[in-house]
Amino acid sequence: MSGFVLRNGHIIDPYTGMDGIGDIYVTADGKISGIEPEVDVKRGEKPEVDQHRQHRCASLDVTGCLVTPGLIDCHVHAYEYVTPLGINIDKTCLARGVATVVDAGSAGSSTVPGLLKFIGEASQTRLFCLLHIARHGLADAGCVTCDGGGECDSLSVVDVDACVKTIKANRDKIVGVKVRLARNVCDQGKNEAEVYRRALQASKECSVPLMVHHSISSIPLGEENGLGCPGDLQQGDIYTHCFHGHIDNIVDLDTGRVNPHVWDAKRRGVLFDVGHGQGSFAWHVAEQCASEGFWPDIISTDLHTGSQAGPAYDLVAVMSKMLHLGMPAAEVIRAVTNTPARAIGKDQEIGSLTPGRQADITVLKLEDISQDLEDSCGEMRTLKKAFKPVRMFVSGTEIPVAAGMDWPNLDSVKACKARTAVFRADEIARKK
User: Does residue 178 sit within a domain?
Assistant: First the structure.
């Protein structure tokens, strides 16, 4: 591999504050050696050119493109062939501009060695993981809307000591704890509160974030006395699926506005993550949140076997949805680079174009389109702009970019509408 320079791209790096036209130099050993912007954004002056970098470099023209740190998808399910939800991360993430993924609880303390060895070591995509509080993780579990039972139906497998011991032995790759709070995966709600307490305890003992899936749950958003979610989450914890459309979503049913407990959590530093998935993004919820200036801190896909062919598709599709809602492009980039890197404690390694780091770089075009795109309820909105990955580098090695799926996938739309009708009827019946 020889060194190269990406020329004339619009570089956006929220970590350094770079937002302007410039060149990125990459060494033969796959590290960023320097950036030469037209204007140094921090000093407001043109920097001196480092002459040695101008020689013996292949020149790649990326005029008209956005050049960002390698994208990070902070919520996927990567344990292919072992869990029902597992996907091939090189084919579905890396080939679509994502350099790093965080597996969100596919494995627990008993099953994570296989995830790290047979997926992490075998993939070009960088893999970190959140350890499920249940020892077996999602080995026999699908979406929470399934009727087949769940990973926390028995408290005997919700093992704080095993979780803590495993995290402490693998801090380089295990970056947090994951729990799903939903009736269907916690013995119809009977175990939910205790499962939540144990997950909170494990994350606290290890000083790592807790990511919580919270929908179709018996636990409220917050209470004066008693457990709440995100009411009991702390700074740095992650509330995923923040725009889901189930009846217990973050928009208050009575006021039609974002619930005060949710605003309180955001103010104290709880991170809100899109976690789109198969059933966890509703246009009407996201639009209300956007109207109040409630933006996600992290944009992720919850990509798995049930969402990769729609309604999530890939990370750039979810990013495009947030852009459609009015989230500024630079903040969209922050939510898939610096913020997730910081959330998992890896912001000194990934999520930035800082010289000296591995050259994980995504090159995007922001295209004008007019295309409908579905949410998890089967509702459509017409997008006018979309991100498209055009070049991808991991540690300086170029990765071929694959064409994304055409959307909307009408089969996905039909399935989303059918699922939504069933669960809305069930939720209404529960509330009576």
Answer: yes
Q: Which two tokens stand for residue 222?
A: 């917050």
Burial class (CB in 10 A: 0-12, 13-18, 19+), 389: buried
Please indicate, yes or no, if residue 412 is contained in any of the structural domains: no
What pLDDT score was predicted for residue 162? Answer: 98
Tell me how far apart the alpha carbons of residues 403 and 105 are, in angstroms, rounded to a whole number: 28
pLDDT (tens digit per residue) in 378-428? 999 999 999 999 999 999 999 999 999 999 999 999 999 998 887 776 666
Q: Over the stretch 124-157, which tens digit does the pLDDT of each residue have?
A: 999 999 999 999 999 987 666 555 568 999 999 9
pLDDT reading at 306 higher than 70: yes
CATH code, domain with 123 = 3.20.20.140
Distance CA 200, CA 348 (A): 26
pLDDT > 90: percent of the chain: 85
Beta bridge partners of 180: 213
**Which residues have C-beta within 8 Å of that of residue 311, sequence separation ≥ 6?**
276, 278, 281, 374, 375, 376, 378, 409, 412, 413, 416
Rounded Cα–Cα distance for residues 137 and 67 (Å): 36
User: In total, how many domains does the chain have?
Assistant: 1
How far apart CA 374 and CA 394 sit, in angstroms, is 31
Q: Which domain holds residue 279?
A: 71-343
Give 8-57 pLDDT, tens digit per residue.
999 999 999 999 999 999 999 999 999 997 544 444 444 444 544 555 67
Specify if 127 maps to a domain.
Answer: yes
Q: What confidence tier does 429 reach under pLDDT thresholds 50, 70, 90?
A: low
Cα separation, 343 vs 351, in Å, equals: 11
The one-letter code for the residue type at 31 is K
Q: Of 42, 15, 136, 26, whose CA–CA distance to 396 is shortest?
A: 26
Q: Render 230-241 in DSSP notation, one character per residue.
A: TTT--TT-EEE-
Inside any domain, residue 375: no
Q: What length is written for the chain?
A: 432
**Interior CA angle at 76 toward 105 and 146, to 5°?**
70
- How crowded is residue 253: how many other Cβ atoms within 10 Å of its Cβ? 10
- The amino acid present at 175, given as its one-letter code, is V
Q: What is the CA radius of gyration of the chain?
A: 21
Per the CB < 8 A criterion, the answer to whether 133 and 108 are in contact is: yes
Q: Tell me the C-alpha distance between 413 and 376, whole Å.
A: 8
Cβ contact 42:97 at 8 Å = no
